[in-house]
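TL;DR need structure tokens for one chain.
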Amino acid sequence: MAEERLRLKDKVIIITGGAQGIGRAYALGMADEGAKLVVADINMDKAEATAKEIRAKGREALALKTDVSSPESTQEMAKKAVDRFARIDVLVNNAAILEKIRITRLPFYELDLNEWDRVMAANLKGTLLCCRAVFPQMKAQGRAITIIVVLLLGGVTLVCTGFSHNNL
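>> reply
TL;DR here they are.
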């Protein structure tokens, strides 16, 4: 694709859960469109492998170990993204606990409450924490804000995009 026709040329995009699965696919696809990527994942080895693959395509990428259920970790993610790229244009909230959990295979009355709390901390609280971490920078940039929330429900993928204008 010609450089001038890249749809995401020089956009800085953070993808949580970006080291594997659909998050990795998002990262590679967005890199193909010219984006600068922050691959934020709890698995640093896989995050670095994905970032290395992006850099091999001639694009910029930063791998960060990020626990989306931790306010400190999500704040550090946003800070390091800004330190490296001086801006944040898009946040893709993709991190979630989905595989290898019993919660999806049991009736609600048999669920282990510790497992429930762990899933809710990553899948719901993590989305909130990541949005809160990047919002001040995005607002300071004085442009429309794009936050993408990816929800996987029973095999159905819903992508919700939020746009906010300068009147915040």
